[in-house]
Design brief:
The structure is a homodimer.
Chain A (H helix, E strand, L loop, with lengths): L2 H11 L7 E3 L6 E3 L6 E10 L11 H18 L3 E12 L7 H14 L3 E10 L3 E10 L15 E5 L4 H10 L1 H4 L4 H10 L5 H10 L2 E6 L4 H11 L3 E5 L7 H9 L4 H7 L6 E5 L4 H10 L4 E8 L3 E6 L2 E4 L2 H4 L4
Parallel strand pairs in A: 4-5, 9-12
Antiparallel strand pairs in A: 1-2, 3-6, 4-6, 7-10, 7-11, 8-10, 9-11, 12-13
Helix pairs in contact in A: 1-3, 2-3, 4-6, 4-10, 6-9
Chain lengths: ~325, ~325
């Protein structure tokens, strides 16, 4: 496969060509017209073979789709909409059978589903396979949700059911132990093919009560740590209030694990974790529910730094090593 | 080293904070205000260990600086100026001694030298080391230089002295053969620490005669192939007109190689390769020279596809396998 062939293929894969795109794939840069009366959002994430995905259970399609989803999720977490995607691929020489075209197609399709268009990138050889994605989006200034506005006394919320993806990952890594557990299939799918609901972000961004927000990618505890750090405060998670889905409950019972461990430390949920002032807490839950977005009130913001978990009316501080990613 | 430590370090490394930057490192996305009356340029490049660089002769500083330079070069090649840099790092576990901080510092310094600011990115673990950089810039519409405007009859030009970087790379890979050759030191430096001159791009973009342009990254022949393909034409390079610097001439004589092979196939020069109408050819060279930019008239655009080299009044077509990058 040569570069020329691949570029021509990619050009054909792309269906949607936004009007603001002046020049797409094929030049030194992609050229776009700037959005009017909007802020520009930029985010970037990398996925490396053997660290973020395993080709034993990740297909080319799943990988492409997931690479798009986790990046678009960052735009939604800020209250924006995605516009342009840039995809860099490091193709390892020992991965001849891997279908790069299928991966790019899945990446492009999923991006287009969310209104974004693949406009550029780079394909290189590498010793081990990696993907780096940059997404560019836009948001109205008044819709921006950042990580730095949480205040002591605010309540902590999360959308949907975090923990399912983490449980699915566990099932993928422990196939013998999980054989025959019916609920594990849906959980695995949740891990391999995360699906984003733009409505969650839109409802929160327009609701006007969110004081801080991010998407849960590394686990509830880690990501609460990020809000705490950026907002110079602490966060207390109330263990008994954590939402546990029926599937996760069933799965956890069968493998004899506490489902809430998946909720706290699982990661890759791409649900939104956010804070809002205590006085608007009840209203926030009702407002979201009315618009089809399930949110759970799971804790509160404190004046002391760090993350703690309140369980059986006892508070316990989470060790920093469980909060921050290590290299 | 944990994530928190690294993010705090990076925040301190960044000296320049442009006014248009609403939110930098620390959130799901960086947030910027869109430029007014300008187009936005976006480009992305990846570098993989063992393919694009070798830690045996590439220091952390050189790598950081080069990663910034090759991306900024794409912005200059379109006639724009760089504004924002996004840096993704895949850190391999077996590279404990590598100084990530030094690399980021060099990346940030070089970007700032060219007016651009590091605003975000991602740091992940990986099986082998890689960098993916995205650069966002801006250009006035009338200054845009693309790859698709070359017309049969146009002349082909190149700035400076391509081939020096390729010769430096040869010297790095063949230390025994090149020991004692004085000129090799400057050539090696040219390869390891490419330096960009924004004046070249500015002069060409404002001159108003350029019909197509790109930066020479994969070699003169490869990159002429890109102009030819995007402009649906062919290009003929006149061998005898290729510029050869004194250093390259000296080095090539000592290793008994044709210096023009480095000029044609070396790569990583980051000089600008461009076309202009024949009637403005002489004027183009004089206009550039007056502004301190050396350009050489090295060939012409043809109506037939592909790249050919004219040597001793004989034209020979270059095989496509020498033009396109293979994976």
């Amino acid at each position: 496969m040569d570069e020329f062939y691949l570029i021509e293929k990619i050009k054909k894969i792309i269906k949607r060509r936004p009007r603001a795109l002046v020049r797409g794939i094929g030049d030194d840069c992609a050229v776009v017209s700037p959005p009017q009366n909007r802020k520009i959002l930029v985010s970037s994430d990398s996925l490396a073979e053997g660290v973020h995905f395993d080709f034993r259970y990740t297909s080319a399609e799943c990988l492409g789709r997931k690479a798009a989803a986790i990046n678009i999720s960052d735009i939604y977490a800020m209250g924006g909409i995605p516009l342009y995607m840039i995809l860099n691929i490091g193709i390892s020489l020992n991965r001849g059978a891997f279908d790069t075209e299928k991966m790019i197609r899945a990446f492009s399709r999923y991006s287009e589903k969310h209104g974004a268009c693949l406009i550029g990138g780079d394909t290189v050889r590498a010793k081990s396979f990696f993907l780096s994605v940059t997404v560019i989006g836009e948001a109205k200034t008044e819709h921006l949700m950042t990580r730095f506005g949480a205040k002591p006394g605010d309540r902590l919320f999360v959308t949907g059911f975090p923990g399912e993806s983490g449980a699915g990952f566990y099932a993928l890594r422990n196939p013998k132990k999980c054989r025959g557990i019916k609920s594990s299939e849906a959980l695995k799918k949740r891990h391999l093919e995360p699906d984003l609901d733009p409505v969650k972000s839109r409802v929160l961004a327009r609701g006007g009560v969110v004081s801080s927000c991010l998407d849960v990618s590394d686990g509830l505890v880690s990501d609460a740590g990020r809000i705490a750090r950026e907002s110079s405060c602490g966060i207390c998670i109330e263990y008994e209030k954590l939402p546990v889905s029926g599937k996760l409950r069933d799965f956890s019972r069968k493998i004899k694990k506490d489902p809430r461990e998946f909720v706290l430390y699982g990661g890759e949920d791409y649900e939104l974790l956010f804070t809002a002032a205590e006085e608007s807490a009840g209203e926030t839950v009702r407002y979201c529910a009315k618009r089809g977005v399930r949110v759970s009130d799971i804790g509160f913001v404190t004046g002391r730094s760090g993350i703690c978990i309140e369980k059986n009316s006892k508070k316990e501080k989470v060790d920093d090593s469980k909060v921050w990613k290590h290299f």
